[in-house]
Each structure stands twice: as structure tokens, then as C-alpha cells.
Write a structure and sequence with these properties.
36% helix, 317 residues, 2 domains
Amino acid sequence: MNFKCLMPLYEKQVPSSYTYKFTVFTPVFNCENSIEKVHDSLLNQTYKNFEWLVINDGSTDRSHDVITEIIEISPLNINYVNNIENKHKMSCFIQSIELARGEFLLPLDGDDECDPNALEVFNNEYEKIPEELKSTVAAVTVHCRDQYGNHIGELFPQDPFYCNTFEARITKQISGEKWGFTKTDVLKGILVSPDILGKGYVPESIIWNTVARNDFLTKCVNRILRVYNVGVEGSIMNTPMSSRSAFGIVLNVMSEINWFFNKNFPRAPIYFFKKLYILLRTSTYLDYPLRVYLRSIDSYIIKLCVLVLWPFRKLMK
């Protein structure tokens, strides 16, 4: 076992031809009470050149029936996939990249809403990117508010703000939940090992970090366009740590350390020591021996820290 072999790679792809400007992708798991709100948000969009890709991830409630009823009456271009088996969100995201017929892929969860002009703003902001930057900019990102109308996170330091999202995050230029699209061609170039799929929760940040690692920029804009529901029962944010989420978290932490430690440790040491703590604490939920972690980590500093602290990891709360 070597976690390094499971970290995503990137290979530039030949540009594809697309039918739509946007693919709005909605993963669904037990969203019978909220999926109609997502549909209404898209139905009210002022910009119409998009498809709605819905992947039902083995829901155990009436989600399938509700989605089917929506499709029967909706004027939207809907591509619906009903996964009988629950594959988890990362598997659905990879599935959406393969199925997308839009130039830009925009995730919108099954309990989210967005402003009527959201797609129009996204399209306009992309068109305003200088031509010399368009090949380098892979994404456009905006802000969210919660269901009570409160802005989540802080404003970007400039508007627009072009950045490497990982570097901006560790220097606290980006905080809080954000929302945006990514070029489908870029996402198609990300090679994800099938061995990590089906192992429970895998953070989506491993995908965004792969984009950042390959020197793509994101255009960040100080607009609030998405309603992000916080404190929702069943949300991964409210799920206690367990073996179902541990593998993905460990893989994500190791990828951040291997990809970004050498360049970024001097300006953000606390960030990486927190990641070390998360790695050690989360490893208690897995059965891999110490040698697997030492073999998978590139940094000799982190290897030494893991070696020294390994006997005490079960004391970490």
C-alpha cells in the first residue's frame, strides 16, 4: 500500500466540443424535500444555455420519484442518472465529468439554491477575463450565503482576484464556503484512481488542489450567488469521524503535504502542522501500519514528525 500511487494526476486533454456553455451538476442523496428548490432555482435562470445533470446516488427516500415527476413537466435540458448503489459524492463527481456536455461544470448540491442571475454572472465574468489569461484560468468562484441570509466567509482582497486557490487559502486570502465552475476540459485531465472510489467520503478539495498544483488560476469575484444550507442533518460536516471518512481525509492530507509542503511551509507552518495533527488523529481509524505512512510521505521533516508522534496518536482528540 502506498498513498502516493492513489493521488490524482493531471494530463492535458485535447479540447472537446460541447453542446452547452454550462453543465450544472447536482448529486442527490435523500433530497426528496429539497430537490424541487434546486430545480426552481435553475428554472428561473436568466441565462439559458445549460443542461442540468442530476445523479441520484442510491437514495433510500422518494428522491427518484420526485426527480422523475420534475422531468415530466420541466422545460429544462435534464440528464438524469439513477445509481442504484450508493457510490458517494466523489464517485458521482467523477461520473459527472464524463457525462458533462457543457464547457463549464458547476456543482450545485441537492439542498442548495442560487440567484436567478447566477449563470449570467458566471458567463459574463469569464468573458471579461483578459485573452492572455484565459488559457491559464480554469475556474470562476463567487461567495455563498446561508439559508438565513448571512454571508459565509470573508470578501476576496481584490475584485477580481486571480489566484492559486491553495496558496490563497493557506495565506487566508480565501476563507469560508465558495461556489464556482471549472472548465470541463481541465477536469477531464484529472486522472483519479478507481481504487479511491467507493471507500467512503473523499474531500472534493483533492480535485481543486490538483487544479492548483498544475498552475491553473481561479478568478474570484465578490458576488454572493448561492444559498448554502448549513447545519443540515446528514451533512458530511455534521458526521462524526469514522472509518467511512478516514481514508479520504488521510489521502487528501498526504497529497497536500507532498504537493505543497516544500514551497509553502516557510510562510504557513501552522497550517501544515495542523494537517500533521489531522493525519495522525485520523490514522487511528485505519488499519495501515506506520511504514505505509512513512513510505507515502515525501517530506523528511514530516516523516520524522510522524515517526516521533506515532505512539501518541491515540491520545489526540
